[in-house]
Amino acid sequence: MLRTWIDATAVLLAAVLLGGCATSKEKLLPHGHNTMLDIWQQETGGGEGGGPIARQLLDARQGLRRPLTEADVQAAPAVQERYTRTAGNEIYRQFHRLPNPDLVMYVYPHLAGTDPVPVPGYSTAFPLYQRVQYAMPGERVEDY
After folding, report:
1. Distance, CA of 42 to CA of 50 (rounded, Å)
2. Is the separation of the CB atoms in 54 and 44 below 8 Å?
3. Residue 134, SS3?
4. Residue 24 contacts by C-beta under 8 Å, 6 or more apart in sequence?
5. CB-side exposure of 91: number of CA atoms within 13 Å?
6. Which residues contact 123 (CB under 8 A, 6 or more apart)?
7. What is the pLDDT of residues 104-140, one digit of tens each?
8. Which keywords accompany this UniProt record (predicted)?
9. Residue 128: which of 105, 101, 107 has the closest Cα?
10. Higher local confidence (pLDDT), 109 or 73
11. Which distant-in-sequence residues (6+ apart) come within 8 Å of 140 by Cβ?
């Protein structure tokens, strides 16, 4: 009983896999001789006058091309202020650097080079992280 069920499942799985390979690309994704310009003109009613679709498209475009009102002109500086570089917002940057502490390492006196030359001990500092990372606007930038 179990063996016939497994055999039937295997036959069904093989048929599905082989059937998927038998589909032709042309039947699945047919394409004609029309260019994108032909399709655009056909869908928008053509270039000369057009039909009702072209009229709807023209009306939608005219709605977007409305003239600016006095309220729009007055509101523009306030809206753009957040994105415009000024002395004030350059001081208080939007993208703060994330903390990248310096590590101080002491190098003991040693001999270096092919002709062993004595090198005195010294301290050097290097950043903990290889790259400088920046916080997104509004992200927490206090010490963690």
Report:
1. 9
2. yes
3. strand
4. none
5. 2
6. 104, 105, 106, 107
7. 999 999 999 999 999 999 999 988 998 888 888 777 6
8. Lipoprotein
9. 101
10. 109
11. none
